Amino acid sequence: MRPSRRLVALVLALAAATVLIGVFRLDGGVMAGALWAVLVVVAICDLALSHAAKTLQVEADLPSTGYVGHTVTLDGRIASRRRSLPRRIEIRLTHDGKLAPETETSIETPRPGQAEVAFRLALVLRERGVGHLSRLSLRYGSALGLFEVLPTWPLDLSIEIVPDVAPVLNGEIQSQMLPLLDGLKDMKLRGEGSEFHQLRDFQPGMDPRSIDWKRSARMRDLVARETRAERNHQIILSVDSGHLMAERIGKLRKLDHAINASLALTWAGALGGDNVGFFNFASRPQQFIPPRPGRRAFGHVQKRSIELEAETAETNHTLGLTHLNGVLNRRSLVVVFSDFVDSVTAELLVENLAVIARQHLVLYVVLRDPELDSLMRPTDISMGRIAEAVSARQMLQERQAVLDRLRRLGILCLDTTPDRLTAGLISRYIDIKSQELI
């Protein structure tokens, strides 16, 4: 409990009145003392009429799991055991860094005579791991507004924050893969692939080169060979967890965006009939998960990605990518999620990707910060804004120069914003499958 602004103002006004009474009246001590006594009596009455913290009961409930970058709600209830609730209640939470309320303070205004009110607080899940809520604090005014009551209740609530697999669960990935599995692109795969699929009657408009003349002669009717793209390819998801990947773009860090996209591609690879493996590196090589088929790969990658944390050290691309190149025993699609600052720091990255590209198909994925584009087009003209625009343009030019160099080396590049990362990555995977680049 603490004095409110109203009480502080009354005390200051009464102090000023006491000084004036003492200046103009020699016998004003009795009058000043009476004024202070009235204030004390009013304050005591205010405390007696106010809602005591012990008369309030607070309950709160938090979901057990949530996806990083998403929002969950804390559902709670405030009830009064003896009388109606205060007219205005402010609610605040004490939490760790993995959680962040959308608004620091939530305000509830119960109706007159209402003895119970429910509240909902939105929490943004900022980082993977286990988020904790340790305390719930209230603030409400006394009956006459002379004091602010500040009760607190300990909370022992936690939520497990896992990578975002919502596109997998809601069918978004499967819908995007449908053209590859049963549609126009599937027909293209069957017509231009190298693996025999089935025989079918030749129809007008089909490629005459697909006719199987021996079987057609046997059956005395035109029969076409239907082929499809080879399956059981190897896809290796290589995620950089160095300090550059700890930078935040929007609600999430770059590492979290890369993990979410990796899980989506793992599921897409399972639908496409390919084997998916996972590799993580930073200042040194870390765990390598061998390629596995189907949903088994998704479970292993998901388990590893939950434990993955960004390091504060600089990434050693030479050590990490050389180790990866040594453990691969067959041609694979290597998807590398990494980042660089400028063309100088990217030199080792380019050299090591070029070495891997000699035997494997490399897809380099890098995230672009949308704020750089906004800095290039300032709304107000000032020296500071102009300097920021020049720096942003220079950074984008150096970034583009590195990507152009990678493309000339035969390395596929995906430079996109976080909101388009998953869809763009799956689309690129479909194109690679349709062209049989692996």
List keywords for this structure.
alpha+beta; 438 residues; six-stranded mixed β-sheet; Immunoglobulin-like; seven-stranded mixed β-sheet; single chain; Rossmann fold; 2 domains
Could you please describe the fold and organization of this structure?
The chain is of the alpha+beta class and 438 residues long. It has two domains: 109 residues, Immunoglobulin-like (Sandwich); 210 residues, von Willebrand factor, type A domain (Rossmann fold), CATH 3.40.50. 39% of the residues lie in helices and 29% in strands. It contains 13 helices and 21 strands. Strands 1, 3, 5, 7, 9, 10 and 11 form a seven-stranded mixed β-sheet that branches. A six-stranded mixed β-sheet has the order 18-17-14-19-20-21, with helices on both faces. Strands 2-4-8-6 form a four-stranded antiparallel β-sheet, with no helix packed on it. A hairpin with a 2-residue loop joins strand 15 and strand 16. Helix 9 packs parallel to helix 10. The radius of gyration is 33 Å and the shape is elongated. About 3% of the residues have low confidence.
